[in-house]
Amino acid sequence: MSEAKITEYKMLERLGSGTYAIVYRAMKKTTKEILAVKVMAKSKLSCSAMDNIISEISLLKKLKHRHIVEMRDFLWDEENIYILMEYCDAGNLSTYIRQHRTLDEGTCKRFLQQLALALRYMRQNDVSHLDLKPANLLLTKASGTYVLKVGDFGFAQRLKLNQENTAVKGSPLYMAPEILLNTSYGPTADLWSVGVILYECLFGRAPYSSTSLHELAERIHRNDPIAIPCRPPISTDCRQLLTNLLQRDPARRITFEKFFDDPFLDLAHVACEENLEKAIALINSAIEMEQRQELGAAYRAYCQGLQYFVPITRAEPDPAKRQLLRHRVLTYLNRAEALKQHIYAASQTEEQQQPNKSIPVLKPPDERGRCISGKNTSGTSKEGGITEKLHEPDIAELARDYEIIARGLEVGRQAAKEASQNKLDIALDSYTSALGMLIPMLHQDITPGQKRVLRQCVVQWMEEAEQIKSIRSAQIMQEMESTEANHYACSVQ
Predict the structure, then answer these.
(1) pLDDT 10s per residue in the chain (493 long)?
(2) 1 inside domain
(3) Looking at the DSSP assignment, which residues form a beta bridge with residue 128?
(4) Is there a single domain that holds both residue 187 and residue 283?
(5) Which among 49, 253, 370, 433 has most CB atoms closer than 10 A?
(6) CA-closest candidate to residue 24, choices 34, 14, 32, 10
């Protein structure tokens, strides 16, 4: 590689500096392409720093992912080593947090999903970053949409899931306790850092914010409990994930497998071409089922389709396409809400005619995805491929024998009532509380018949909760888009 090649680039302004590197914005003279150039003076590099650079170059040559900063080339001359990187035009997450002070939960979730996709790809290649922090999460922006990219792999190394290391690496405020305390550590050290980043995004500061490294180390040594503030309020799923990430003991910390499957993260519905196809197929299916008057199944399919369409709409960088997707989401949201009201009205009529029926729920689809024939608003379950009715005497027996089940059922009934009155946030909290009481009872010593009935009820309410989440995510997106549009209109007047 010729030393003269660096002359092909014009160094522009300085972007920042680190322990042994200065980063500049640069332009390739022939193509006018803008890049970021990391410049490291050879004279200032220790042996360990040189090892880090070699490791970083080696890893970046192989890591190619939408949410990882791409290395375009690396050069050197007598004085310096140069790493030429993709330029991220919107700064980094640290600056973004300082500008906004705290981020709403929806924004935190979108950034976290993008970070998780990068981490999943890195784990597939046995790569641990070991210096995850907001300053190393770079941002690009197109048509108001931010994309997060993981950068600065200077401390990264290859670590398989059960492999450990003892070398101290990373930034103390975001460093896992097992690294800071000079004990062996493994890949899940990155997950502690993710928890600290999420905490800072939500509350504007890191959980162990300290005035000095000594104070930070003392707090870690004392095992000071991490308090999750009450304000701003966060969802139960978000709080649970935060708690699971910020476990001091790596053995109790969430695993990568469970992290990638976490309900708050919801990687199954992230924006991608494959999920757009799933969304379209679900909506088409919902329309067909609605035309056949299979209303319960149609409602469920609309909700499932919205779970895919909302993140796809938010991630779309083209304003015209995003507006078209917003219109579709609003249409499907209105249809789902209309179906919900129709189904509830029908179930109320039947309940008045047969007052001894149990909790009204939507009719689930059969094994072919169609609605079960006949009017059955008392709930159903599939055991061994056979659909059985949920009988009121079974529910009454459970409630009589177990006080916790009686309370869970009452809260669940209240949740159904709140959902019918469009109090969706309250209903979701109630369903969560009810499930929190009922699910542990599935592991108690109750008869197989009682367990089957209880499991049917739990499954029904879990589905109801998921449907409410999809409706609320669509509503919140519409509200946010409308607020932003109004703000923009006011600004240009």
Answers:
(1) 344 468 899 999 999 887 778 999 999 999 999 999 999 999 888 888 888 888 889 888 889 999 999 999 999 988 999 999 999 999 999 999 999 999 999 899 999 999 999 999 999 999 999 999 999 999 999 878 899 999 989 888 766 666 666 555 567 899 999 988 877 889 999 999 999 999 999 999 999 888 787 788 788 888 888 989 998 999 889 999 999 999 999 999 999 999 999 999 999 999 988 999 999 999 999 999 999 999 989 999 999 999 999 999 988 888 899 899 999 999 999 999 899 888 877 777 766 666 554 444 444 334 333 333 333 333 333 333 323 344 556 667 777 878 888 888 889 888 888 888 888 888 888 888 888 888 888 888 888 888 888 888 888 888 888 888 888 888 877 776 665 555 434 433 3
(2) no
(3) 157
(4) no
(5) 253
(6) 14
Catalytically annotated residue among 89, 131, 262, 266: 131
- Cα–Cα dist 94/113, whole Å: 17
Domain ends where: 86, 114, 139?
A: 86
Residues 114 and 244 in one domain: yes
246 in the same domain as 277: no
CB burial of 296-319 (b: ≥16 within 10 Å; e: otherwise) equals bbbbbbbbbbbbbbbbbbbbbeee
Query: Is residue 245 located within the same domain as residue 285?
Result: no
Q: Annotated catalytic, 224?
A: no
Name the E strands within 117-273: 127-128, 137-142, 145-150, 157-158
Last residue of a domain, one of 269, 286, 308: 269
* Domain count for the chain: 4
Is 38 within any annotated ligand binding site?
yes
Q: 358 in a domain, yes or no?
A: no
Q: Distance between terminal CA atoms of the chain?
A: 55
**How far is residue 409's CA from residue 401's CA, in Å, rounded to a whole number?**
13
Q: Are residue 344 and residue 467 in the same domain, yes or no?
A: no
Cβ–Cβ < 8 Å for 21, 74: no
| Domain co-membership, 218 together with 286 | no
Helix boundaries (H) for 71-209: 93-100, 105-124, 177-180, 189-203
Query: Is 491 contained in some domain?
Result: no
- Do residues 225 and 154 both lie within one domain? yes
Question: By C-alpha distance, which of 289, 246, 241 is closest to 265?
Answer: 241
Is the distance from CB of 85 to CB of 69 less than 8 angstroms? yes
Please indicate, yes or no, if residue 293 is contained in any of the structural domains: yes
Q: Nearest-CA neighbor of 388 among 379, 399, 397?
A: 379
Give the domain extent around 12: 6-86
